[in-house]
Amino acid sequence: MMTIPDTEITLTAMRAQGAGGQNVNKVSSAIHLRFDVNASTLPSDVKERLLALSDSRITKDGVVVMKAQAHRTQEMNKMDALLRLHELVNSVEFAPKARRKTKPTKASQRARLNVKSQNGEKKTLRAKVVHE
Predict the structure, then answer these.
(1) pLDDT, tens digit, for every residue of 25-49?
(2) Which of 39, 78, 94, 132 measures 20 to 30 Å from 117, CA to CA?
(3) What is the pLDDT of residue 107?
(4) In the CATH scheme, what architecture does the domain 6-91 have?
(5) pLDDT at position 19, please?
(6) φ and ψ at 37, to 5 degrees?
(7) Taking the C-alpha atoms of 112, 117, 121 and 124 in order, what is their torsion angle to the nearest 10 degrees?
């Protein structure tokens, strides 16, 4: 479980979009989160994996930008944004396991070829019979 210091995360309150009646124009309940990956104290291998993600929330400059506005209160949106950031960072905490190439066994190759020949025979039996 990776921990990110609060000093590396920039949280800005802003007005939420969408429906909300009169309240939506008065209250800044949405949260805009910014986290600079390159300037962070994360280990270098985690930074590399995070920047290698093809995620639309990560800019070309290596800044994670998230907007949380699902909840009515600023505190809930702040918690939501931080939780989503931690989930993103924790998803790349460990390096993916390297895939080792394996060869199919002789028996499995024979079985595959037998099935292929059986299917081919089945299809030739479906053909029209030509009387000479």
Answers:
(1) 677 888 999 999 988 888 999 999 9
(2) 132
(3) 97
(4) 2-Layer Sandwich (3.30)
(5) 67
(6) -70, -45
(7) 110
Burial of 23 (0-12, 13-18, 19+ CB in 10 A): exposed
> What 3 state SS string does the chain have?
CCCCCHHHEEEEEECCCCCCHHHHHCCCCEEEEEEECCCCCCCHHHHHHHHHCCCCCECCCCEEEEEECCCCCHHHHHHHHHHHHHHHHHHCCCCCCCCCCCCCCHHHHHHHHHHHHHHHHHHHHHCCCCCC
What is the reported pTM?
A: 0.70
Using a 10 angstrom Cβ sphere, with 0-12 exposed, 13-18 middle and 19 or more buried, the burial of residue 118 is exposed
In the chain, where the domains are located:
6-91
81-96, pLDDT tens digit by residue? 999 999 999 999 998 8
Contact 83, 71 (CB under 8 A): no
